[in-house]
Design brief:
Blueprint lengths: L5 E7 L2 E6 L21 E11 L2 E14 L3 E10 L10 H4 L9 E9 L34
Antiparallel strand pairs: 1-2, 3-4, 5-6
């Protein structure tokens, strides 16, 4: 592989125009550094257009390049021991204690995804050295206004 002289001509928002020597039928690899991923996930589509002067030469639209991961916003994370789950019980004093190593607890996470997540969906939650019971997984759905 050898480096080809590339000179940026202009850049605006999601478009960059480059001056580069291209020969018909010859494969070229172009590397763009400092590219910011979009805030929403999904299929990355690109338009690639070549000009000679002001004349359109070749073009490809909606080129599928890669899949951008979805951003997951995590809020309201809480780890509740058996007493903190229901503070209205007779164990009010115990409910004020912290969580203890080796005891079962309730992990609550509020998740918001940046892209539509259509069924079927697999959600994986991992934490090194934690043990999770598959019989305890429950998902609650919240409306967009937080209700």
């Amino acid at each position: 592989l050898s480096s080809v002289d590339v000179a940026p001509i202009s850049q605006q928002g999601d478009m960059i125009e480059l001056a580069v020597a291209l020969l018909p039928g010859q494969a070229r690899s172009i590397r763009l550094v400092h590219v910011r991923l979009p805030p929403q996930g999904g299929q990355g589509l690109f338009d690639i257009i070549s000009y000679k002067g002001g004349e359109l030469k070749d073009s490809s639209y909606d080129v599928k390049a890669f899949y951008t991961p979805v951003h997951v916003e995590v809020s309201e994370a809480a780890l509740l021991n058996q007493y903190k789950r229901d503070p209205q019980t007779q164990f009010l004093k115990e409910a004020s204690f912290g969580n203890r190593v080796g005891e079962w607890a309730l992990l609550k996470l509020r998740l918001r995804f940046s892209a539509d997540m259509h069924a079927p969906l697999r959600l994986q939650v991992t934490a090194a050295s934690w043990q999770v019971s598959t019989s305890s997984a429950v998902v609650w759905e919240y409306l967009l206004d937080g209700q």
